[in-house]
């Protein structure tokens, strides 16, 4: 034993359509920017939503073959659209994914408190009971980020999540992603924003 911690996320020989083979290791605690036109597809591969032409993805050494397997290993995908239920409140959108999921990193004796706390962290405590359709695009993006924070992912895949945010909220979100990494998550952030890329530990171009 060397005492060196194995990477939380590893991609070995992963090939997307028309792209070169990619090897990538992301440790627990790292915030890594993914830059390139097919960065969203790469996040889809890690999330188990897209099958690569070849290669393998592992989380904590366990191969990921599909979305269920990825979710079971604590992979959370935060899409650019947010994928929120527009006729539910901000609070309900954050709370519902926490219910009925015992075990793992998402177990909690008080999911409602965790949902409220996540909304506080993104500055939306006062909007918790508003319908999502009543919120601005930037507020909706922050609801999606709150939902991710509440899930406590082992691997977070964030797809252009700062696009609709003003500079102050962009900084707030980047700080929250950094906090997730500090808590042990491996964070992949797809972005073409130079300021966002600069804020990450390192960047990978694909």
From TrEMBL:
Any one Gene Ontology molecular-function term assigned to this protein's record: ATP binding
InterPro entries: ABC_transporter-like_ATP-bd (IPR003439), ABC_transporter-like_CS (IPR017871), ABC_transpr_LolD-like (IPR015854), P-loop_NTPase (IPR027417)
ABC transporter domain segment(s): 4-206
Coiled coil (UniProt feature): none
Keyword field: ATP-binding, Nucleotide-binding
Similarity comment text for this entry: Belongs to the ABC transporter superfamily.
UniProt protein name: ABC transporter ATP-binding protein
Protein species of origin: Microlunatus ginsengisoli
Native organism taxonomy: Bacteria, Bacillati, Actinomycetota, Actinomycetes, Propionibacteriales
């Amino acid at each position: 034993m060397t005492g060196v911690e194995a990477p939380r996320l590893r991609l070995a020989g992963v090939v997307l359509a028309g792209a070169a083979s990619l090897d990538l290791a992301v440790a627990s605690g790292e915030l890594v920017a993914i830059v390139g036109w097919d960065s969203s597809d790469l996040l889809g591969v890690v999330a188990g939503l897209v099958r690569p032409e070849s290669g393998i993805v592992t989380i904590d050494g366990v191969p990921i073959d599909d979305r269920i397997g990825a979710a079971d290993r604590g992979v959370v995908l935060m899409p650019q659209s947010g994928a929120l239920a527009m006729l539910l409140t901000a609070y309900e959108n954050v709370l519902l994914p926490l219910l009925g999921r015992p075990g793992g990193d998402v177990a909690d004796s008080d999911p409602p408190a965790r949902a409220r706390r996540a909304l506080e962290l993104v500055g939306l405590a006062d909007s918790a009971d508003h319908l999502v359709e009543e919120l601005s695009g930037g507020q909706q993006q922050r609801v999606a980020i709150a939902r991710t924070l509440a899930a406590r992912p082992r691997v977070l895949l964030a797809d252009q999540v700062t696009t609709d945010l003003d500079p102050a909220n962009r900084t707030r979100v980047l700080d929250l992603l950094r906090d997730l990494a500090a808590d042990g998550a491996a964070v992949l952030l797809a972005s073409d924003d130079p300021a966002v890329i600069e804020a990450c530990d390192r960047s990978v171009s694909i």
